[in-house]
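Page header: ASSEMBLY MODEL / two components / 752 residues total.
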Amino acid sequence: MKRIKQIINNSDINRFRFYIQIAAFGLLIYGGYLAIDLGNHLPTFACTFVEKRGGACYLFGFQHQMNIPINQLFTGRGLGILTGLLTFFALFILLNKSWCGFLCPVGTLQDWITRLRIKCRVRYSTYSEGLFSRLKKIKYILLALLILLPLGISNSFAGLPRLPHDFSTPFCMICPGRTVLPIFSGDIGQLIVDFSSRTKMVLTGLGMVVTGLFFTGAFVKKRFFCLFCPMSALQYAFSKAAILKLKKDGAKCTRCGNCYRVCDVGIRDIAEDIVNTDITKDDCMMCFKCVAACPEEKCLRVTFIGVPVYESTEEGFYRRIEGRCDNGS
Amino acid sequence: MEAERLERLKKTTYLHLAMEAKETLKKIEEDFPDRLEAMEYFYNLFHRVYTEGTPLKINRKTIGIMCMQVPEELIYATGAIPVRLCSGAHAFDQVGAEFMPSKSCPLMKATMGMLYIDHALYRESLDMVVIPTTCDQKRKAGEFLEEMGFNIYTLEIPPTKDTEEARYYWQNSVKRFALMLQETTGQRITRKRMREAIKRLNSARQQYRRLFHLRTSSPSLIYGKDTFVITNAYFFDEIEKWTEALRSLNDELERRKKEGLFTGNRSAPRLLLTGSPPVFPNLKLPLLIEEAGGLIVADEVCSSSRLLYDAPVFDEANLYDMIPAIADRYLKPCTCPSFVPNNDRKRRLLEIARKFGVDGVVYQAYSGCQLYEMEQRSIARTLMDEGIPMLYIETDYSPEDVGQLSTRIEAFIESIRSRRRRQ
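Prediction written out in full:
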């Protein structure tokens, strides 16, 4: 048992993650060919617009369900929303935000773009902390909008006219997952501006702009889009209940900042917070690069139902960094 | 006239230095039982350099550095060799006292004195001297040295380390330093050379960490005085040789542990030394402590654990990320009192005290080192709150206060013993 633990802690989580990501990408984009269907409540961007997908993103159905008159919320339809949310919850708490770090196809795509940048030896760009913390709030606004806009189709708020039906899945219209992921199954049909109605024109136009930003953003900044992801915001609401956790022992921390340095989403608290033990923050995608970069024995730990599954160790740390110095990755 | 005087001064100083070093080495080697085999390498090294004055052969560019914040990886990546100049010699201290302000700290006076007469111990030349802007005395020393004809590089380091602004400022400062190094050495820093340098230093640090963890053993495996000899050797020894020597020492300690061979009295109070750095030959305080029956099982000083403990990590194996990564390693975990606030030092001390099962802390402050003198109060309070007794000692390199110090140290050790008996 001790030996197995040592092997796991000495391993390089990045390489493991790289292969898991490829497998998950294949499964979620091409799973349909093998008649795999993981359902429509996945807490990750398995896009509904991909024809042979192996499962579908919860947000698509969720937005549709939100197109509901308020007075029907407490009827059978409301129950549908609730069961949907519960299914989402059940799937989410299993893996917590690792859905983002290991399984999300849009996230994986961004990681591949980052790999390309590193190969090209192009420097990443840095931003001031203030700008960063302001930008991060956008995801909560997007989450609010993707609930409120569909609600506005069936309801009239404060005497305003109801919204047209084209607002039924507003976020999908601007999501880069919709435009980009179908390309992998040979469908470039989503890369268009739809002129059939004014709303569609605006939303798909915006979608094209976001797609452009997605590629440029992801090239200069790791996991650029994840900062604005409303799925991440929705997940964070349930994150404390999850059974996969990232824990930190503040007393062992020297605040060397190694964890922060390797963090793709720039979470500073991982290094600076020496008080909280449950260290998962809203932008965290649980890739566990921080655990691999920590040289202190058991300072950072990944636990599953309280059982440590991956821990920072000195031996593992030195092994990994030596390997990287040798092969230059 | 002047040249003749300098020549005479040089001669007498080296005589004094050799005597001082011999005396210290004699104490280190002979006053204690359980001489470790692998320590011979380190004892011999100090004999060669300090008492016999054998020049260290280096056919490469030599960069003199002060403090522990100069990124050594960069120096190695240019093919040059870093040499830590901070001196612990009373002989040099007396030379420096001639021209340094009377209230400056002995380490600074000794370092300046050494450079004044010799351009760094037994070394032909220094191609550059790098001084980080840590404390006032180090900062201003550069001006002095420039007048003496040294090629000085002032490495700007922020006075605080907690903000992102400070971090970026430091990263930029290190980048500038890297460019300057390339110019001085005529060697470009490449990705490959950088990776090799990181690996080289990491394996040295990994061995240091092994020793660090071995010292948690109770009963103890090694005297504190020996560990200072080891870490002081890191200042000037060839890094591969040093790493190998430490590896065999660690192996020996592990072997001894298995065989149940321990060092010192089993009931000896386990002490932690913090504050101003002990540098050979000034191992006055560690020797007094261990001669009085205490054991220094851990330290938190910039000539030892603070210098060697931390390890950098880069995220992308390109220079644009590796150089800032190295920069972070020398700033973020550093507990130098030149930083405000310095809560990390308190946390670090508590963690070491817990990990090593420490009975008490000895806080050394060189008179004239304002920063350590000032931080003493808050450190004492932090330790007191945790029920850890602390002895504060203000001293310098002169042997005059030895009698008074040993009385105080004996009393402190006795108080820890009686405290234990009561429990």
